[in-house]
Specification:
The chain is of the alpha+beta class. The chain has 10 helices and 13 strands.
């Protein structure tokens, strides 16, 4: 048996042990309370019975002799004879009478109380009624003594006593039967609970076995979900975790493979040129320039990889209220430094949206740089923004060769490159992956509209929320987004370059 199974059985035994102990304690307390209640009820019934006999005796002593029809007039013997003749004691009850301080008559009893001198003397000297309990060889006896007085003296004493042993033994026997039944119920219930607990904990065993069998190369095992209780919810949560782990491991393997491939090439180039570098100054200068260029490319790859790693963090996007028109115009101004192109401001939406200006600028600069790399000098590139319903749209369009239909999905993957059009980039194919990460960080998406030979339009679409007045903003200016990575920010002289604004009613292809 494995350690995991022993731990599972130990937990199962502890839970059932605590439950059985709690149930046994409850049974014991219940039996003790039940016994106390029954004994108290028995004492109350005995006291009521003794009181009833006392009342009957007093009524008889104050009445008439049924044999003569005359009042008893203090004839205690006649009173006792009549009472003994007319009344039959219940089980455990005894009648005893004293006349002139001496025993007169008694009913059968387990112990002859009229033969105990101390009791006879005590009862004979009574002037008022008395009750109490005495202990005999036959067990405890509850009694009530009633003196009958005539002419200022005690002429006789009536004593009714109840031997409690038999009735108390009945109570104790009932408690023992109840305890036996409760014990058997406890054993049966514990056994059934053991079996039921095993079935209820079966998903936990499966979770343990699945977790033990999971490795980096096999995350395919799943646990069947049964019911809608807490165990089922735990099972669903565990399966969801396995799905996330499987996706994470798959992405990690692909990432490591692609990153290794991309970094291996510049490393090989650097090593080869360093090994072949001679003593000629010009040769050394060319080699250093080439190595520096490759190192710069590796640095850009590492920076992009770090950015994509941050995209998995919850604080990757820090939304604030921004004015969409300010962001759009500043993007166009800064994008001109990326290349000698005919930059156009297609449209500029006015309104307040909620987003991360730095991340949005980063995504749009990647799209603009991508457009530059797919067009020639002087080609037209347009940027614009629009508010449509509850969505904000920011786009970059180019007039290049467009995107091959087979590449529409894969170009947003890491290290992916399109197969169509001219390609002069020295990047690693991470730009569009960053754009998608930024869009998804804003709970949005990236739309691509392209036709062969007619260029492509990439649009970042994200939910737009906020007010309508720029003075309501509480944000850093969009300029904090900084210049696009790579080329330097435009200098003061660049601000005099003309920006063409194309007035149209619709600036992007229909979805």
């Amino acid at each position: 048996m494995t350690d995991g199974r022993r731990s599972h059985l130990g937990f199962r035994a502890r839970v059932l042990g605590f439950s059985a102990a709690l149930l046994a304690g409850a049974i014991v307390v219940g039996l003790v309370v039940q016994r106390a209640v029954l004994l108290r009820r028995l004492d109350a019934e005995v006291a009521a019975s003794l009181e009833q006999e006392r009342e009957e005796m007093q009524r008889l002593a104050g009445g008439r002799n049924p044999a003569t029809g005359q009042p008893f007039e203090g004839d205690v013997r006649a009173i006792f004879d009549t009472f003994m003749h007319r009344n039959v004691p219940i089980e455990g009850e005894v009648y005893l009478t004293l006349v002139e301080g001496r025993p007169y008559a008694t009913t059968p009893a387990p112990v002859r109380l009229d033969r105990v001198p101390a009791l006879v003397e005590r009862w004979a000297n009574l002037t008022e009624g008395s009750e109490g309990e005495i202990h005999t060889d036959a067990g405890p006896v509850r009694y009530l003594a009633v003196p009958l007085r005539t002419q200022g003296r005690t002429a006789g004493v009536f004593v009714v006593a109840n031997f409690l042993r038999a009735e108390r033994e009945e109570v104790e026997a009932g408690i023992r039967v109840a305890a036996g039944v409760a014990g058997m119920v406890l054993v049966v219930a514990t056994g059934l609970a053991w079996v039921i607990a095993g079935r209820l904990l079966r998903p936990v065993r499966q979770l343990t076995d699945s977790a033990r069998s999971i490795s980096e190369t096999d995350l395919s095992r799943r646990i069947p979900v049964e019911g809608n209780d807490e165990i089922a919810e735990l099972t669903r949560t565990f399966n969801d975790m396995l799905d996330r782990l499987a996706g994470a491991f798959a992405a990690q393997r692909a990432f490591v493979d692609d990153a290794g491939h991309e970094l291996r090439t510049p490393i090989t180039i650097i090593r080869g040129h360093l090994e072949l570098m001679g003593d000629d100054p010009q040769d050394r200068e060319e080699t250093v320039a080439l190595v520096t260029d490759e190192l710069d490319r590796m640095a850009r790859i590492v920076e992009d990889l770090l950015l994509l790693a941050k995209a998995e963090q919850p604080d990757f996007v820090r939304p604030q209220l921004i004015e969409l028109s300010d962001l759009t115009t500043e993007l166009v101004v800064k994008a001109r430094a990326l290349g000698d192109r005919d930059w156009r401001l297609d449209a500029c939406a006015e309104g307040v949206v909620r987003g991360d200006a730095q991340r949005l600028a980063q995504a749009m600069f990647n799209l603009a740089r991508n457009a530059v790399e797919h067009t020639t000098a002087g080609a037209e590139i347009g940027l614009g923004s629009a508010l449509e319903g509850d969505e904000a749209r920011i786009w970059v369009r180019d007039t290049g060769a467009g995107v091959d239909p087979h590449d529409r999905d894969r170009i947003f993957d890491r290290f992916a490159r399109g197969r169509s059009g001219s390609r002069r980039s020295d990047g690693a194919g991470l730009g569009l992956a960053i754009v998608r990460a930024v869009a998804e960080g804003h709970h949005g998406r990236v739309e691509l509209h392209s036709r062969a030979g007619l260029g492509a339009t990439f649009t970042v679409v994200f939910p737009a929320t906020g007010g309508d007045r720029p003075e309501e903003l509480d944000r850093p200016p969009p300029a904090s987004a900084g210049p696009p990575p790579g080329p330097s920010a435009p200098g003061p002289d660049d601000d005099t370059r003309e920006i063409h604004v194309v007035e149209t009613t619709r600036q992007w292809p229909a979805s």
